[in-house]
Amino acid sequence: MSRTRRSIGAGLTSLVLVGALAVIGGAPASAHGYVGGEGSDMVARAALRENVNLGAVQYEPQSLEAPKGFPQGGPADGQLASAGGLFGGNLDEQTSDRWVKNEITPGANTITWHYTAPHRTSKWTYYITKEGWDQNAPLTRAVLEELTTVEHDGTPATTNPVHTIDVPADHHGYHVIYAVWDVADTANAFYNAIDVDIQGDGPEVGGPDSPTGLTATSTSSTVDLAWEAVTSGDVERYDVYRDGAKVGSSPTASFQDTGLRASTTYGYTVRAVDADGAASRHSAVLSVATAAPDGQHGPTAPSYLHSMGTTPTSVDLMWIESTGPEPITHYTVLRAVGDGQPVEVATTAGDRYLDEGLRPSTTYRYTVVAHDATGASSASDPFSVTTEQGDGPQYPAWDPFGAYTVGDRVSHDGLVYEAVQSYQGHGDPGWIHALSLWRVVTETV
Fold first, then answer.
1. How many angstroms separate the CA atoms of 36 and 214, rounded?
2. CATH fold of 4-198, please?
3. Which of 238, 183, 159, 146 has the alpha carbon at shortest distance from 33?
4. What distances in angstroms separate CA 43 from CA 182, 194, 412, one per listed residue?
5. pTM value?
6. d(CA 217, CA 83)
7. The pLDDT of residue 169
8. Is the dihedral of CA 348, 351, 354, 359 positive or negative?
9. Domain 397-445, CATH 2.10.10.20 — does that match?
10. Among 107-116, 228-237, 238-247, 424-433, which stretch is predicted with the lowest mean pLDDT?
11. How far apart are CA 430 and CA 296, in angstroms?
12. Where does the pLDDT of residue 47 fall: very low under 50, low under 70, confident under 90, or very high at 90 and above?
């Protein structure tokens, strides 16, 4: 029997899922985003909590990442929903009643993404299955047609948070909407299958028009919005959304958003609601940057520090670049082992750093510090990640900046060394030969 859910629960679903991730231990190292943010009319197959037998993807729906270039490139046919067979490919199971469906109507529908790392973005493209598609066959490119493309300017994804897609009036019943988020600063994209049950003939005609003329002024902690009053319909209030989430309502064509972070860009939309509760479409998105903190003129902190990939001996770090009144000259990368003291391990001019020579099954804590041309600096929030378990007798390369405990083993110049006492390195390349710190165990294989 077909199962459906009403779109009103989209925001709640996302909150429940995020809570579950927190209980399990936080988002994984390669997590980035999925359809189902606050205010979304629909939630992706992998993130919809009513779905069962998802496999491990239920804990990290934000990790459906594969090479971009769809439809010419990207995941193979039959593996579109799983982004190429990830997490065992459970998401590629396809029958008319396998998945719970978001109940929607033809016409305008709202999609927002929940981002754990809002990469700099090129575009989002949305497809839908053709009317009469085979609901019991694997999902392929041949059964998809493009709905719309939302172009972007290379800034972080959260500066364009709300997307409106028009579902064709000739589509009815069960369909799959396929969402593709093309990242600008990597070679990858994120792929989400969204199961929908299209009912009715679309929204009633005669509701309020969408607000227009949205403008803003800002301080370091507030944004004052204003727009043209909607004169069509009996408008009772305006609902205001920041980065896809409702932040308040106003009976007039203005609103003040408070308690914001300094030197941060937010995306705002507004929609009109009439006395019967019918809502207009969202306005066009307005990006607003708050001012720098009073008396402070340094760079913003690097944000969304995360890993693009983790192996037994490496972590591929990435972050959203800092901004400021002065040019950013470089970043320093600090690393700590577990709860140990952080030490500087690299300097880089870009927003990415591959940290190699690490130990398998070890938790590292990273901080990235931005520096501008005046010498001012600002540090990111710490980010912890655990390297994968190694296969066989593999040992990480010795790190002169590393922190080691008695019994740790490392490789260096074709030999395996074992620590005979605990210590924190400070970059001296000769310490590996200190008999009070290391003893040779065997040659590496």
1. 25
2. Coagulation Factor XIII; Chain A, domain 1 (2.70.50)
3. 183
4. 19, 6, 50
5. 0.63
6. 41
7. 87
8. positive
9. yes
10. 238-247
11. 42
12. very high
